[in-house]
Amino acid sequence: MANPFPLEPSLWAATAAAPPQTTRLEASLSTEIVVIGGGYAGLSTALHLAERGFKPVVLEAQEVGFGGSGRNGGQVIPGLKYDPDELIAKFGRERGERLIAFGGGTADAVFGLIDKYAMDVPHIRNGWIQGAHTQEGMDQARRRAEQWGRRGAPVRILDQSETGRLLGSERYVGGWIDGRGGGIQPLSYARGLARAAQKAGAIIHTRTPATGLAQERGRWTVKTASGATVTADRVVLCTNGYTSGLWPRLHETIIPANSFQIATRPLSDNLRRTILPEGHVSSDTRKLLLYFRLDHNGRLLMGGRGPFREPKGPEDWAHLERIVGKMFPQVKDVPIEYRWCGRVAITRDFMPHLHEPAPGLLIDIGCQGRGVGMQTAMGRAMAEYVATGDEGALPVPLSPIRPLPFHALHKLYVSAIIAWYRLNDGGL
After folding, report:
1. Which domains, from first to last, does the chain contain?
2. Which of 168, 178, 374, 427 has the highest Cβ tally under 10 A?
3. Distance between CA 310 and CA 54 in Å, rounded?
């Protein structure tokens, strides 16, 4: 695997709470449940299983939060990619309402766990603003606010003036605000989940890549790179944007797009008062969306899509640096301190997918860029399903693994789409 920190450490790696004490798996063992993947989904699953009295074993190929969980923008945004009325139209009234309730509660799941376990995680919950960059985007914002408002969510429409004041940029014609959203230090949160899971009884082995998965006589055996194995009754696979060939063709069901981010040095107090002055987090209505926020030390973060390949040099982040200067001219001369990226698992229908291709094997894949809240809540749902066998605990139905047609060509397609949108999606 290519080095995920190709040039400099990420902001989050540089400022996170210390990692939990973990070990590499050296000797084979037998357990009830093994969870593969030490990101939000895997750690949340392990934590909620341990709370129920199970003793899950987590296998992580690198370190806790190594993948997208430790390298995202730290925005906690409720909801799914589809608006409530779209979910009902797509899935029917009963399933749609369940999905709406699930999506609407994802931010609560994150902040609830941070509070419950007193995690050492810098966080803020003053709301998420979606800025509309065109009148079409403003129409979309009105629909979303209306649909969530009907369901009692703390949302409201923002006119151009208020959007400019709350964001600190004049680039938007308006927008809407959802008071349920907020921001966290994402790697500290992953490490906090791991500590909570360990305290509840889970065992976490890092630097332990799973290399093989097979079932025999009703039990599963997970082979690891060291030669040690884990034998278990149940396996939960949660590798998302870093999915490899552990299960046939699973990696062909997603596009693992790279999300690129930069962070300035901490802003002066005067500059801080001009950008997101009330502590909101934000992403916009572009097809190739931009997302930005201030971190707990007052750095301005800007994120968006970049090359599909792993980055080769600082020039791969240059488009984000240009965007910062255009959106926030007051900080155009503030140096960039950090550049990093992480993979986001995108499915064809922009929904999370759950698969059970064999008895005792549950697979979760697809985060669509909202993984902080969605995968935390998904872990809770998967733990309930594993513990009870009740499919009603799952927000989406179990489905067959369906590889994307011509998957090998999708990297070229995505790269072309990114280049097209960069030229035509809002003038930045």
Report:
1. 11-127+180-402+411-424 (3.50.50.60), 128-179 (no CATH)
2. 374
3. 38
Cβ neighbours, 10 Å, residue 259: 20
Specify the 3-state DSSP secondary structure of 56: coil
Q: Structure pTM?
A: 0.94
Tell me what pLDDT residue 412 has.
Answer: 59
pLDDT computed for residue 100 by the predictor: 98
Check residue 164 and give its pLDDT: 98
DSSP letters for 363-384? EEE--TT-HHHHHHHHHHHHHH
**What is the SS3 assignment for 260?**
strand
| β 210-216/128-132 pair status | unpaired
pLDDT at position 307, please?
78
> Quick check: 213 and 239 in contact, CB under 8 A?
no
- Residues recorded for the chain: 428
Q: How far apart are the first and last CA of the chain?
A: 32
- CB count within 10 Å of CB 185 equals 24
Helix/strand/coil (H/E/C) assignment for every residue in 383-399: HHHHHHCCHHHCCCCEC
Q: Report the alpha-carbon distance of residue 77 to residue 258 in Å, rounded.
A: 19
Q: Is the dihedral of CA 405, 411, 397, 49 positive or negative?
A: positive
Q: State the pairing for strand pair 29-36/57-59.
A: parallel
Residues 6+ apart with CB under 8 A from 140: 132, 285
Q: Which two tokens stand for residue 289?
A: 């969306």
d(CA 192, CA 5): 22
> CA 351: distance to chain centroid?
13
Instruction: Please give the pLDDT value at position 409.
Output: 54
d(CA 229, CA 222): 5
Task: Say which residue the tokens 């993979």 belong to.
Answer: 343
Question: Could you say which residues of the chain have pLDDT below 50?
Answer: 1-7, 420-421
pLDDT at 270: 96
